[in-house]
Amino acid sequence: MKPRWIYSECKIYVCNFIVSYIPILLVRLFYYRYIMRYGIGKGSCIGRGCKFNGSGLLSIGENTVINEYCRLDNRASIVIGSNVIIAPEVKLMTADHDMNHPQCKGRERGIVLEDFVLVGAAAMVLGGAQMKKGSVLVAHSLLTKSTEAFGVYQGLPAVYQRQRAHDHAYGKGQPTQ
Protein backbone atom coordinates (compact mmCIF):
# COMPACT_ATOMS: atom_id res chain seq x y z
CA MET A 1 0.00 0.00 0.00
CA LYS A 2 1.17 3.47 -0.80
CA PRO A 3 1.15 6.06 2.03
CA ARG A 4 -0.57 8.62 -0.21
CA TRP A 5 -3.51 6.25 -0.83
CA ILE A 6 -3.84 5.54 2.91
CA TYR A 7 -3.82 9.27 3.69
CA SER A 8 -6.48 9.91 1.05
CA GLU A 9 -8.76 7.14 2.35
CA CYS A 10 -8.37 8.31 5.96
CA LYS A 11 -9.15 11.89 4.93
CA ILE A 12 -12.38 10.79 3.22
CA TYR A 13 -13.34 8.58 6.17
CA VAL A 14 -12.87 11.43 8.65
CA CYS A 15 -14.81 13.73 6.30
CA ASN A 16 -17.79 11.38 5.94
CA PHE A 17 -18.07 9.84 9.40
CA ILE A 18 -16.76 12.50 11.79
CA VAL A 19 -16.62 15.98 10.28
CA SER A 20 -19.95 15.75 8.44
CA TYR A 21 -21.74 15.27 11.79
CA ILE A 22 -20.09 18.14 13.64
CA PRO A 23 -22.93 20.56 14.47
CA ILE A 24 -20.79 23.66 13.85
CA LEU A 25 -20.93 24.75 10.21
CA LEU A 26 -17.69 26.75 10.35
CA VAL A 27 -15.74 23.67 11.48
CA ARG A 28 -17.20 21.59 8.64
CA LEU A 29 -16.48 24.31 6.07
CA PHE A 30 -12.90 24.65 7.31
CA TYR A 31 -12.29 20.93 6.81
CA TYR A 32 -14.01 20.88 3.42
CA ARG A 33 -12.09 23.91 2.13
CA TYR A 34 -8.60 23.32 3.51
CA ILE A 35 -8.31 19.55 3.96
CA MET A 36 -10.63 18.22 1.24
CA ARG A 37 -9.77 21.12 -1.14
CA TYR A 38 -13.37 21.87 -2.15
CA GLY A 39 -14.01 25.30 -3.64
CA ILE A 40 -16.87 26.70 -1.56
CA GLY A 41 -18.07 30.26 -2.17
CA LYS A 42 -18.97 32.88 0.39
CA GLY A 43 -22.31 32.39 2.13
CA SER A 44 -22.65 28.75 1.02
CA CYS A 45 -23.27 25.90 3.42
CA ILE A 46 -23.26 22.11 3.46
CA GLY A 47 -25.65 20.42 5.88
CA ARG A 48 -24.74 17.69 8.33
CA GLY A 49 -24.45 14.09 7.20
CA CYS A 50 -23.38 14.80 3.62
CA LYS A 51 -21.09 12.18 2.08
CA PHE A 52 -18.36 12.58 -0.53
CA ASN A 53 -16.27 10.15 -2.60
CA GLY A 54 -13.04 12.06 -2.93
CA SER A 55 -11.09 15.21 -2.34
CA GLY A 56 -11.07 18.05 -4.84
CA LEU A 57 -13.32 18.00 -7.91
CA LEU A 58 -16.09 19.96 -6.14
CA SER A 59 -16.77 23.63 -6.79
CA ILE A 60 -19.67 25.51 -5.16
CA GLY A 61 -20.61 29.14 -5.90
CA GLU A 62 -21.86 31.77 -3.47
CA ASN A 63 -25.03 31.58 -1.35
CA THR A 64 -25.68 27.94 -2.20
CA VAL A 65 -27.32 25.54 0.24
CA ILE A 66 -26.73 21.80 0.24
CA ASN A 67 -29.09 20.33 2.83
CA GLU A 68 -28.55 17.37 5.13
CA TYR A 69 -27.72 13.80 4.11
CA CYS A 70 -26.85 14.48 0.47
CA ARG A 71 -24.39 12.31 -1.42
CA LEU A 72 -21.95 14.04 -3.73
CA ASP A 73 -20.01 11.44 -5.70
CA ASN A 74 -17.15 13.68 -6.75
CA ARG A 75 -14.98 11.07 -8.47
CA ALA A 76 -15.56 13.28 -11.52
CA SER A 77 -16.07 17.03 -11.39
CA ILE A 78 -19.17 18.50 -9.74
CA VAL A 79 -19.68 22.21 -10.43
CA ILE A 80 -22.50 23.91 -8.53
CA GLY A 81 -23.29 27.55 -9.26
CA SER A 82 -24.44 30.38 -7.01
CA ASN A 83 -27.84 30.64 -5.31
CA VAL A 84 -28.52 26.92 -5.76
CA ILE A 85 -30.76 24.98 -3.37
CA ILE A 86 -30.21 21.25 -2.99
CA ALA A 87 -32.84 19.66 -0.74
CA PRO A 88 -32.13 16.83 1.76
CA GLU A 89 -31.08 13.35 0.61
CA VAL A 90 -30.20 14.36 -2.97
CA LYS A 91 -27.64 12.23 -4.80
CA LEU A 92 -25.25 13.62 -7.42
CA MET A 93 -23.66 10.51 -8.96
CA THR A 94 -20.74 11.01 -11.35
CA ALA A 95 -19.58 7.39 -11.60
CA ASP A 96 -21.41 4.41 -13.07
CA HIS A 97 -20.84 1.48 -15.41
CA ASP A 98 -21.25 1.61 -19.18
CA MET A 99 -23.81 -1.09 -19.94
CA ASN A 100 -22.90 -0.93 -23.66
CA HIS A 101 -19.29 -1.97 -22.95
CA PRO A 102 -18.71 -5.76 -23.11
CA GLN A 103 -17.24 -5.80 -19.57
CA CYS A 104 -19.50 -3.01 -18.19
CA LYS A 105 -16.44 -0.83 -17.78
CA GLY A 106 -16.65 1.87 -15.12
CA ARG A 107 -16.88 5.49 -16.24
CA GLU A 108 -16.92 8.92 -14.66
CA ARG A 109 -18.79 11.91 -16.07
CA GLY A 110 -19.07 15.35 -14.49
CA ILE A 111 -22.20 17.17 -13.33
CA VAL A 112 -22.95 20.90 -13.66
CA LEU A 113 -25.70 22.74 -11.76
CA GLU A 114 -25.81 26.33 -12.99
CA ASP A 115 -26.98 29.37 -10.96
CA PHE A 116 -30.48 29.47 -9.39
CA VAL A 117 -31.07 25.72 -9.78
CA LEU A 118 -33.40 23.90 -7.37
CA VAL A 119 -33.10 20.15 -6.75
CA GLY A 120 -35.97 18.60 -4.77
CA ALA A 121 -35.70 16.15 -1.88
CA ALA A 122 -34.35 12.66 -2.62
CA ALA A 123 -33.81 13.44 -6.31
CA MET A 124 -30.85 11.98 -8.19
CA VAL A 125 -28.69 13.55 -10.92
CA LEU A 126 -26.52 11.20 -12.96
CA GLY A 127 -23.13 11.90 -14.52
CA GLY A 128 -23.09 13.87 -17.75
CA ALA A 129 -26.17 15.92 -16.83
CA GLN A 130 -26.18 19.70 -16.79
CA MET A 131 -28.96 21.63 -15.11
CA LYS A 132 -29.17 24.98 -16.88
CA LYS A 133 -29.77 28.28 -15.12
CA GLY A 134 -32.92 28.36 -12.98
CA SER A 135 -34.07 24.83 -13.78
CA VAL A 136 -35.91 22.68 -11.23
CA LEU A 137 -35.75 18.94 -10.58
CA VAL A 138 -38.83 17.88 -8.60
CA ALA A 139 -38.50 15.66 -5.49
CA HIS A 140 -37.86 11.92 -6.06
CA SER A 141 -36.99 12.45 -9.74
CA LEU A 142 -34.07 11.00 -11.70
CA LEU A 143 -32.21 13.31 -14.10
CA THR A 144 -30.25 11.49 -16.79
CA LYS A 145 -29.66 14.30 -19.31
CA SER A 146 -29.33 18.07 -19.51
CA THR A 147 -32.19 20.50 -18.89
CA GLU A 148 -33.41 23.73 -20.48
CA ALA A 149 -32.95 27.01 -18.62
CA PHE A 150 -35.84 27.60 -16.18
CA GLY A 151 -37.43 24.27 -17.08
CA VAL A 152 -39.22 22.14 -14.49
CA TYR A 153 -38.47 18.40 -14.70
CA GLN A 154 -40.18 15.50 -12.95
CA GLY A 155 -40.32 11.72 -13.06
CA LEU A 156 -38.28 8.54 -13.44
CA PRO A 157 -36.55 9.46 -15.70
CA ALA A 158 -37.24 13.17 -15.39
CA VAL A 159 -39.06 14.76 -18.31
CA TYR A 160 -39.86 18.38 -19.06
CA GLN A 161 -43.10 19.58 -17.42
CA ARG A 162 -43.28 23.34 -17.92
CA GLN A 163 -41.33 26.61 -17.84
CA ARG A 164 -40.64 28.19 -14.47
CA ALA A 165 -41.68 31.82 -13.89
CA HIS A 166 -38.37 33.58 -13.35
CA ASP A 167 -38.58 37.37 -13.69
CA HIS A 168 -38.78 37.78 -9.90
CA ALA A 169 -35.60 35.76 -9.38
CA TYR A 170 -33.52 38.62 -10.74
CA GLY A 171 -35.49 41.56 -9.32
CA LYS A 172 -37.22 42.26 -12.66
CA GLY A 173 -40.77 42.34 -11.40
CA GLN A 174 -43.25 40.47 -9.27
CA PRO A 175 -43.58 36.70 -9.11
CA THR A 176 -46.23 35.33 -11.47
CA GLN A 177 -49.06 33.25 -10.06
UniProtKB/TrEMBL annotation:
The chain crosses the membrane at residues 12-32. InterPro entries: Hexapeptide_acetyltransf, Trimer_LpxA-like_sf. The keyword Transmembrane helix applies. The keyword Calcium does not apply. Keywords: Acyltransferase, Membrane, Plasmid, Transferase, Transmembrane, Transmembrane helix. GO terms for molecular function: acyltransferase activity. This is Acyltransferase. It comes from Hymenobacter volaticus.
